[in-house]
Amino acid sequence: PETKLPKVGTTIFTVMSQLAAEHRAVNLGQGFPDFEVPARLVEALDRAMRAGLNQYAPAHGLPVLRAAIAAKTERCYGHRPDADAEITVTSGASEAIFDAIHAVVRQGDEVIVLDPCYDCYEPAIDLAGGIAVHVPLGRDGGPTGFEPDWSRISAAITPRTRMLMINTPHNPSGAMLGADDIAQLTALLRDTGIVLLSDEVYEHIVFDGARHESVLRHRELRERAFVISSFGKTYHCTGWKVGYCIAPPALTAEFRKVHQYNTFCTFTPAQAAFAEMIEAEPAHYEQLGAFYQAKRDRFREQLLTTRLKPLPVPGGYFQLVDYSAVSDLDDAAFCRWLTEHKGVAAIPLSPFYQAPPAGQRLARLCFAKNEATLDEAIARLQTL
Ligand code: PMP
Ligand code: GLN
Questions:
Q1: Which of 84, 129, 160, 228 meets the CB 3.0–4.6 Å disulfide criterion with 107?
Q2: Per-residue pLDDT, 209
Q3: How far apart are CA 17 and CA 23, in angstroms?
Q4: C-beta 29 within 6 A of ligand 2
């Protein structure tokens, strides 16, 4: 009999990180920082463990952390979610995405995803018995080539559409939704029963003075949405796997039914540490955009000394490069070749698509790295 996930193999992130290790390549593939987490966060974690916070947390998250998330959300987006009824702490954004999909998607329901999209979306939809309906990103005149075309998305809606998934800032492209996108999205969903899942894990990594259009800023949208974020991105600790979901009470109630039997609760001492960090050092997330913008600008300038062509990056910590001047290999083959022969690991875009555009020659490089790491990568890329 067919397996439950016939299309799924090993994720591209695992594949490329293994290949990078084998070939001692500079790993700009899988997205993770190679610098330290804030000292206060490590100290707070240590203190929490020594203070005995080592047993199960309340399933929905430590009350102090949910209160801190509510206050931070109000500071950032002018809307304060109810910490008891609307916020659930999860083991990373990945768990939250899985729980939200399983909370509302039934057998045969359609879920619209916008390609290229993060690779954990479709397997979760499949396991729930849903059908992923892929709509390509890209509209005329969009700065990155990965902005949504709302008329195409509208045309994909059917009576079976249960959910629409968006991601801003976007992995892998860095594209961001603007105010006009929000207006079109709002009009599209009005008078439908479609639930919105907004993946906002890169919410604080936005550049050039742009405003992150969180769904939480917009009443009509947030009343039908799961909004998901991750402390892994904001606090340079992707291995801690703590995230959260904000949704109105009725959606949260369904979400928590899945969450409580999936993981029940999330690593307790880290929750105390994040609560302290959010309250004591709001400057950390307020300045994260500037921190990463300096890395982006320096890396882009260096890339201009290579034959790779950098695309615009409005947000997030990934740089797409067009390698068509260097090679006519498809993206999977090129990234493998680059890792094995040039010692720089990158991520191809094709695994993020149902049907990758023919002839697309793009690779993703992560710039969440120390200057020395990026300098070494650039020195190797200059030999292309
Ligand atoms: N969504 C996107 C767009 C991501 O890039 C990531 C992390 N790579 C996740 C979700 C998952 O986040 P977490 O590591 O907190 O599970
Ligand atoms: N989110 C990370 C990325 O896009 C990878 C996370 C993972 O390895 N699952 O690179």
A1: 129
A2: 97
A3: 10
A4: no
Please tell me the predicted confidence (pLDDT) of residue 79.
Answer: 98
118 C-alpha to ligand 1 centroid (Å):
8
Cα 51 to ligand 2 centroid, rounded to whole Å: 32
Vertex 189, ends 168 and 245: CA angle to 5°?
Answer: 45
Do 161 and 154 contact (CB within 8 A), yes or no? no
CATH class of 12-30+287-381: alpha beta
CA distance 224 to 241: 26
Longest dimension (CA), the chain: 58
Q: What is the dihedral of CA 165, 168, 172, 175, to 10 degrees?
A: 120
> What tens digit of pLDDT does each residue of 190-204 get?
999 999 999 999 999
Percent of the chain with pLDDT over 70: 100
Query: pLDDT per residue over 243-256, tens digit each?
Result: 999 999 999 999 99
Nearest in space to 43 (alpha carbons), one of 273, 234, 233: 273
Question: Which tokens hold the place of 85?
Answer: 């009824």
User: In sequence order, what are the residues at sequence separation of 6 or more whose Cβ sits closer than 8 angstroms to the Cβ of residue 140?
Assistant: none
Q: Is 199 in the pocket of ligand 1 (CB under 6 A)?
A: yes
- Ligand 2 mean position, distance from CA 219 (Å): 30
Per-residue confidence (pLDDT) for residue 260, from 0 to 100: 98
171 lines ligand 2 (CB under 6 A): yes
Q: Which residues of the chain have pLDDT under 70?
A: none
Among all bound ligands, the one having the nearest atom to the CA of 167 is 1
Q: Which CATH number fits domain 39-281: 3.40.640.10, 3.30.70.3450, 3.40.50.1100, 3.40.109.10?
A: 3.40.640.10
- 305 contacts 378 by C-beta, under 8 angstroms: yes
Q: For ligand 1, is residue 267 a contact (CB within 6 Å)?
A: no
Q: What is the pLDDT of residue 2?
A: 86
Residue 355: the pLDDT is 96
Based on the number of CB atoms within 10 Å of its own CB, is 9 exposed (0-12), middle (13-18) or buried (19 or more)? exposed
